[in-house]
Amino acid sequence: MSYSAMTNNIKCSKTKHVQGFGSLLGYLPFLLTILIGGGIIICYCVAISLKHVEPAFPYISDTGTFPPESCIFTLCLNCAAVVALAIFTLKYLHIIQYNRDASRRVRIVNKAALITGYVSAFGIMIVGAFQETNVLAVHVIGAMMAFVGGTVYMFLIASLGFMRDVNFAVDERKYAKARMIMAVVSLISFIITMGLSAYSMALWEPFDPSSTVQTWSRKDKGYDVHLVATAFEWVMALDLLTFLMTFSAELHIIQLQCVLVRQNGNTYPSPTISDYSNTNRNLLQHEYQP
Fold this sequence. Notes:
By secondary structure, this protein is an alpha+beta fold. It has helices spanning about 30-50, 70-100, 105-130, 135-160, 175-205, 225-245, 250, and strands at about 1-5, 15-20, 255-265, 265-275, 285. The model is unreliable at about 1-20 and about 275-290 (pLDDT under 50).
């Protein structure tokens, strides 16, 4: 299998369009927000009703630690990770399409963004699959992948908006400053969350011997520091979702199609990506060699 970017016409003997998804791709960021935001809210409500966590800003992972909410947490995060992978891939391909003759710097930043986006998405999967009370080390690794990968992704994508030699389907430069601000907020939130989380654990002395970190109450030492740490974790998650929501405008004009490519008497499926508005028919195509 080889990858090639072809311009103007598809270089094969015969092609047949099978299916198009049009501007519905623009709703992927909203779907991601519903899966993560809605899933966490449901888990939070269930965990509160069963007294698995304290109401005031528990860690996001704490809301999905114990069953039955852990089942919902895993399902929603795994589905969200798949949607995130689709968003990151489409963003990568769209930048390629509009920058066929881009500088090496643009290609490197775009590819690095794709890789860090994938790291973040797989981190989300790990967080959902490995609860902190079962395999803490793996859970923490997944959380680091999700938040660090997501933050680096935000900086890389935001930096593209400041490069003069980058073309976009829509005027993304109007989002550049806002995206960079969100990236900085994510970085600051991450540092605060990590630092205060470690500090609060060093201070923690439960008032009730039966208390756990999931049921950290006001009577426990280190509670105020713990509350600030968890609040900034929620800020970080909301910030990343808001960042991805800014992709909606460009995803709305993407047309993703599946075509059948006939080569040497054999037919192969081949995904293509182009403008939904049909103003630019240049296609990106995976070419499958028999």
